[in-house]
Amino acid sequence: MELFERILSKPEINSRAVDALNAIVANQLVASKQDLAECLGVSPQKFSEILNFRMKAGIDMVAKICDMYFVDPYWLLLGRGNSIFRKTHTPLEPYFIEDGNNLNRRIQFQKDISINKTEVDADDVKINLFYKKTLEQAEEIGKLKERISQLELQLQKNVSDASTGDIASAG
Q: Strand 113-114 relative to strand 95-98: parallel, antiparallel, unpaired?
């Protein structure tokens, strides 16, 4: 196997992903491995399996650690560069969301920061994670509101009109 084939192989990319995950914890960008697993949306058991090379990190996890923790995607995927973390972080394209009024809004979560070879500003990462979590919660609230509206239409009743007189008293 030639060198470039080995560098681009799935086991090598997975090995670099595990190195990046360990570096995120070592640089105290998260409080613990369990917190990192939660931020990445995986169970602690699965996360442990990945760190112990019994499972491979998925592309979704790779994308999240590159976006949320400033891991250099060129280093992670291609083995290019000398640093796990990006040296500079240029502003990313904003996320687009639709709200209930059919208005498209731009939301910028990340700001221009400098990252040195071994250190990342943990406060910037925490702020970034807070805004992403807030967006996820807003999207979930919107989905729940839509579901309530659909159920009200389906039942042709308003939730506030529900009868409470037929409910048995426990006392």
A: unpaired
**For residue 65, with 0-12 CB atoms within 10 Å meaning exposed, 13-18 middle and 19 or more buried, which class applies?**
buried
Q: Would you call 46 exposed, middle or buried from its count of C-beta atoms within 10 A (0-12, 13-18, 19+)?
A: middle
Going by their DSSP bridges, the two strands 104-107 and 113-114 should be labelled as: unpaired
Is the model's pTM score more than 0.70?
A: no
Rounded Cα gap, residues 93 and 67, in angstroms: 11
> Minimal CA–CA distance to 37: which of 11, 64, 59?
64
The full set of domain ranges for the chain reads 3-158
Residue 106, helix vs strand vs coil: strand
**Res. 161: pLDDT tops 70:** no
Q: What percent of the chain lies above the pLDDT cut of 70? A: 63
Helix/strand/coil percentages in the chain, nearest 5:
55, 10, 40
Task: Using alpha carbons, select from 102, 95, 83, 74 the residue that is nearest to residue 27.
Answer: 83
Q: What does the alpha-carbon distance between residue 161 and residue 49 come to, in Å, rounded to a whole number?
A: 50
